[in-house]
Amino acid sequence: MIQLTNVSKIYPNGARALVDINLKIGKGNFVFLVGPSGAGKSTLIKLLYREEIPTRGQVQINNKNLVRMKDREVPFLRRSIGVIFQDFKLLPNKTVFENVAFALEVIGVGKREVRARTLAAIELVGLKVKVNVYPHELSGGEQQRVCVARAIINSPALLVADEPTGNLDPETAWDIMDLLYDINKRGTTIVMATHARAIVNKMQKRVIAIENGRVARDEEKGGYGYDA
Ligand SMILES: Nc1ncnc2c1ncn2[C@@H]1O[C@H](COP(=O)(O)OP(=O)(O)OP(=O)(O)O)[C@@H](O)[C@H]1O
């Protein structure tokens, strides 16, 4: 489903974020990206939803070439990819319902379908009772649940998450991981950059370690592998 071929990324300031990466991630995989701060994990994630374009090499998702893709095609790509960030990025002046519904409204889904699918996604993440409140009235864990609902509203084939538990306490982080686990079980491929050692060690999923922009380790059922 995802294939990176000889991918390098050098930012305009000269920072070499990724160096000659070759990777294949199959449909339905659950992959943790680990590695020291500044290793290139976020950059790799950004290549997957075409927030960044590699300096060299190819990025393919479902046989679509993201490097050659025209800017006007990007919104279509993003409909098949859900994105979750560490800092939530919810719209502050929209309710939970409106934040989640927005992703459907912008692609022209009819009102009734928007309502049904939005409520189903909000129910799935356990936030039915908070459907009409604003983000600032929610805890961090609840805000991240809204982000999960927003990310899965289009039933994406791929979900990418950049440190989704980074701002959450350990217990709340596990609630989010339980959700991602269930979403993966339903067939969505998940790629998640993280520093959460306990989560990586417990879940025993594929672990790709990035160090200095290169793949340093790629294990089928791996552990976090770095000291505290
Ligand atoms: N927009 C940018 N412009 C210039 N350099 C950048 C940019 N984004 C990242 N970098 C540099 O690229 C390298 C990789 O950064 P990246 O954010 O991908 O690392 P990371 O592994 O996600 O780190 P962290 O774990 O701290 O989030 C770093 O040297 C960083 O300073």
UniProtKB/TrEMBL annotation:
Signal peptide: none annotated. One of its GO terms (biological process) is cell division. The keyword Cell membrane applies. It is a peripheral membrane protein. GO terms for cellular component: plasma membrane. Keywords: ATP-binding, Cell cycle, Cell division, Cell membrane, Membrane, Nucleotide-binding. PROSITE patterns: ABC_TRANSPORTER_1, ABC_TRANSPORTER_2. Its main location: membrane. InterPro entries: AAA+_ATPase, ABC_transporter-like_ATP-bd, ABC_transporter-like_CS, ABC_transpr_LolD-like, Cell_div_FtsE, P-loop_NTPase. It holds the Pfam family ABC_tran. Coiled coil: none annotated. Part of the ABC transporter FtsEX involved in cellular division. Belongs to the ABC transporter superfamily. Homodimer. Forms a membrane-associated complex with FtsX. This is Cell division ATP-binding protein FtsE. It comes from Desulfosporosinus orientis (strain ATCC 19365 / DSM 765 / NCIMB 8382 / VKM B-1628 / Singapore I) (Desulfotomaculum orientis).
